[in-house]
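Dig into this one:

. . .
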Amino acid sequence: MTYKTILTYIPAPDRVEPILDVALPMARRHGAHLIGLHVMPQPHMYWAVAAEMSAVVLDAQKEFFDGLASRTARAFEQRTKNEDVVCEWRHANSAGRPVADAIAAHATATDLVIVGNVGPNDDWATQADLPARVIIQCGRPVLVLPHAGTKDDIGGFVTIAWDGHREAARAAFDALPVLREAEEVRLFCLEYDDTSPRYGFTPADEIAVTLSRHGVATTAQRQLSSTPAGEALLSYAGEHGSDLLVMGCYGHARFREFVFGGATRHVLKHATIPLLMSH
């Protein structure tokens, strides 16, 4: 198993370099077709102002979004034109949908999706759910890169968050192409009650044996803790020098809202290393 089609979501010209610094080496290693995707958001109508003013605002927004798309496309072409990787540029219109929905629609026919995380100066309340919404909707593994950037070659030292649930299993097996290349893989199983039975949940040592049959040597560690799961995961990954955290994304759609697990939200908000997540 390798990643033969990799989709990168690039929202603006200044995100081209940090995202392609990771995506291009990964595409080269796997012999993958690399897609750059830009999604134009839907212009926002301000109903509280006069109709004439709303039209002016909408025109201004469209002009801005058109210019942003053109600059992003040029930056992508400039960055990839001399690369020995087959690259493709796509421009999509959100067509009234959330941007995450448009990304997910393109992502379903790919092997891996790469998106950047929310930056410290971005509005967390309105933008933070984009990576998680893409993960939950697209059915593909998503590599979420820290906004501050990361080193070109990631996945040498990997931590897998393991709790025996389907999301964790999906993430672990979706990460196999990366795990096979890693120098060190650690399975971290966090538990909160040493006396509670775990019937129906695959223990960490069993998944470690299964991964070994795929050529992935792992070290499994079970830890009792009272620390919230998201904090404990990031602390463990940091202490062991991990450059990639593999974990399940927990959440679901409720009517038009998305509800995400506490560990998922905490890790997405505070991680300073790349995350490979599946749902």
Q: What stands out?
A: The chain has a mean pLDDT of 87. The chain has two domains: 5-145, 157-278. The radius of gyration is 20 Å. The longest strand covers residues 33-40.
